[in-house]
Amino acid sequence: MSINIPQSSLPRVVIAGGGFGGLKLAQELDSRHFQVILIDHHNYHQFPPLIYQVASSGLEPSSIAFPFRSALRKKTGFVFRLAEVQGVAPERNLLLTSVGEVKYDYLILACGGTTNFFGNDQIARHSLPMKTLYESMNLRNVLLQNIEKALVSDDEERRNALLTVAIVGGGPSGVEIAGALAEMKRYVLPKDYPYLDSSLFRIHLLDASPRLLQAMSERSSETAARGLREMGVEIHTGTMVSDYDGKTLRLSDGSEMKTRTVIWVSGIVANAVEGIQAEALGRGRRILVDEHNEVKGLTNVFAIGDQCLMTADANYPNGHPQLAQVAIQQARLLARNLRARQEGKPLSPFHYKDLGSMATIGRNRAVAEIRGAKWGGFTAWMLWLVVHLRSILSVRNKVIVLLNWIWNYVTYDRSLRLILKRNIPVEPYHQREQRERREHEE
Amino acid sequence: MSINIPQSSLPRVVIAGGGFGGLKLAQELDSRHFQVILIDHHNYHQFPPLIYQVASSGLEPSSIAFPFRSALRKKTGFVFRLAEVQGVAPERNLLLTSVGEVKYDYLILACGGTTNFFGNDQIARHSLPMKTLYESMNLRNVLLQNIEKALVSDDEERRNALLTVAIVGGGPSGVEIAGALAEMKRYVLPKDYPYLDSSLFRIHLLDASPRLLQAMSERSSETAARGLREMGVEIHTGTMVSDYDGKTLRLSDGSEMKTRTVIWVSGIVANAVEGIQAEALGRGRRILVDEHNEVKGLTNVFAIGDQCLMTADANYPNGHPQLAQVAIQQARLLARNLRARQEGKPLSPFHYKDLGSMATIGRNRAVAEIRGAKWGGFTAWMLWLVVHLRSILSVRNKVIVLLNWIWNYVTYDRSLRLILKRNIPVEPYHQREQRERREHEE
C-alpha cells in the first residue's frame, strides 16, 4: 500500500502540516534539490489572526483560506496529500497517515496546536473554540441563533442567558473577539432587532491573570481594557473558570454566570503525534528540539512552530511564544539548514527576532508594540490593518478582505450574518414548552 | 405560548417562506396598512440561479445570500422569525411553526419546493441535490474530496468511479453545472493536479426526455448540447435512472455506470404543509389556488410561487412553470389584491408575463430566448450575466459577484476550492485496505 507519490531521484522532504511554518518551508525549499511532499488534513492554508472576524460576521471563510494546490502550483514536482497525520515510525523513516505510509529522507513536524481545555471534557463539549475556520463558522451560527432563540423565549432567565456571551481567555484572540462583538452590539443589533433591548446583550471577558494581553506591556493592557470597557465589555481579570455545563459557567471563587455562549480562547496544546517518545515532549505537549529544530533523540526529524519547544535560544530559555513569526522564521532557517545538511556543511542555530505584537480592539482602536515603541488608538489600528493585509496569501484574498473592511467601516455593518447549516436546531415548540417547564421545576 | 410578536392595530399578514415570492411580497406590502411577519427556516434569502457556481467553487455562499433582517431593515414594524413552518389550522387562523403558533389575518404560503427523488429513498440517500446553499457547499466538498481520494487509490476501478460525475436532469441547473465542471476539468485540474491525467475526469449529463432544456426551443437545445459536447460533457438523452446505491448508477435500459458522484437536479416537489386538505393538492403536491392565488376552499389563505398550482390563467391551463418570475409576479399582484380585499374592492386575476428564459453553458457561451427571439454564444452570455447581476440583492453582493466573475474570467481559475467541514472523511488506510479487499472479493 502506497499513497502514490511520483518517483524522484531527489531526497524527499515530508512536511506534516501546512500552517505558517509548514507552508513557508514548502515555499522556501528549492525543488531542484528536494522533492517536497506536504500533508495536511485540510486542503487549504488558513490565516488564524483573522479568524475572529469570520466568527463575528465581518469576513467570509474563503477570504482567509487558500488552497495549497493553488499556493504551490508553480513549484515543480510539489506533491500535496489530503490526510490526517497519525504518527511516525522513525526507525523505518516513515510518516503514518490516514491514507497510508510515506517514506521520508527528512521529516518536518509542523502540525501546530489545538485548543487547550485543560483536561475538562465538559468544558470541551459545551464551549466554543475559535481556532479553525470551521469552528469560527460554527461560533457565528451559534451567536446568531441564540439571538433568534432569545426573541421567541417567554422565560426571562433563559432569554438573558441566550443573550450573554462569556469569553474565556484575555490574550489577543479574546480581546479581539470581545471588541468585535461589542461593535456588533452597538452598531448592528439596534438596526437588525428593533424590538430587542440591546443592553440585554452582555459580553464578559474573563482571564485568570491579573491583566489582559499578558504578553504585552502594562500600558498596552490598560489601553485595551479601557477601550473594551468603554465599548461595554465587562472585564473580569484574576478570574478562573472551574466548569461549564452548557448553561452555567462556574468560577473558582464559587460564583456563577448563566450563559449559553462560552467562547474558549484560553490557550493551546501541541497536537499529538504517535511514535514520539514521552521524554521528547515538554510543557504543553510540545516536542523538544535542539537549536536547529531537530527533534531530541532523532536524526533528520525536525519540528517547527507551535508544535515544538526550543530552549537553546539564549533570549528564550523557556521556549518561544507560540506565534506565527516564530514558525515562519524557523521554517526559513530550516530550509537553509536542510540544504546545508545535504551538502555536509554545518547547520546554523536559530535565534528568534521579535517583530513586535499587536491586537485590535475595535474601530480606530488597537495596541501595538514594536521594538520597545508602543502605540495605541488610530496609528496602532492602521498599523494592524497594514501588517495583516500584507500577510494574507494571494492578491485575490487581499482585495476581497480590503473591500470587506472598507465596506464594514463605511456602513458600520457586518454583512455576513448567515446561519449556514443543514439543520436549524430550533426545538419544536411543544418540546421546548415541556423542557422549560421541567427546567423551571428543577 | 406565543412567539412574542409585537402588538399592532393593523391587520396581520403572515408570510411563510422568504424565497423570491415571499420576500417580494414582504417588500411590496405597505407597512402603513399591514403588519408583516415573515417566517423562514433560514435567516437569509438565497439566490438559486447561481447556486451551481457555489457548487463549482466559483462563488462564495455569502455572495448569493442576504439576511432577511438586513433586506427588510427599513420596513417599519416588520417582524422576522427563524422557524420551521409545520402546518396551518385555518379554522383558528393559525400558522403552526417550530417555535410556536402565529395568529394571522392573511396567510401566504410561499414555502417553495424541494428536490424530487420520485420516492426512491436509496437515490435520496446517496445522490447530491443542489437546491440550497448548504447542499451546494456539500457538493463542492464531495467533488473536491473525491479527486483527492482518487489520487491515493491503487484500485483502478475505484479511481475511475471517484473521477466520474453523473448529473441527472437536463434542465438549466443540469446544463449549467455540467458546463461549470467541464471548465474546471479543462482549466483547473491540469494546473492543480499535474500528476493526474485529467481525461480520467468524466462528466455525464443524463435526461429522460429526448433533448436538454425541454422548456426552450429545439434550436437552443441543440446549441446547448453542441456546446457541452465540445467541452467534453457526455450527454445521454432519453435515459432514465432507475437506482443508485452510492457506487453504481442503474439505468432503465439495464446498463449501469460506476460513479461516486451523482448530482440530482431532476425536478422539484412542493414542500408539504400539514392542515392543507388532500383535495386542495394538485400535481407535484402543489397547492391548488384560484386566479387570485387564494387556496381552494379557504378564505384569506393564499399560496404563491413554486408551492402553488393555478390553472385559471388562460395561457397556462396546466399551471405555470416553477420559475422565479412567476413567484415574483404573483407576489406583486397579491400585495395589491390584499389591499383591495382590505378595502372591500374586487381582486384582479393573475396573468403570467413570460420574460423569457436562459441558461449559461460556459465561458462566452449561453442560450437565451426572449419573446420569440433566440440568442446563442457571446450575446446570450452577456445577457445572462447582466440579468443575473441585476437580480442579486444588495450592492455589496453585486460588487463581490462581479469581481469574482471578472477574476475567474481573466485567470481561468476558480479560487474557492476549499473543503470546509469538521471531519475530513478520509478513511484510515488500514480500514480502506480491508474494505477494498472485501469489495474486490464480492
TrEMBL record, chains A, B:
One of its GO terms (molecular function) is NADH dehydrogenase (quinone) (non-electrogenic) activity. Residues 355-409 form the External alternative NADH-ubiquinone oxidoreductase-like C-terminal domain. Pfam families: NDH2_C, Pyr_redox_2. Its EC number is 1.6.5.9. Keywords: FAD, Flavoprotein, NAD, Oxidoreductase, Transit peptide. Residues 12-331 form the FAD/NAD(P)-binding domain. It catalyses: a quinone + NADH + H(+) = a quinol + NAD(+). It comes from the Bacteria. Belongs to the NADH dehydrogenase family. This is NADH:ubiquinone reductase (non-electrogenic). It comes from Porphyromonas catoniae ATCC 51270.
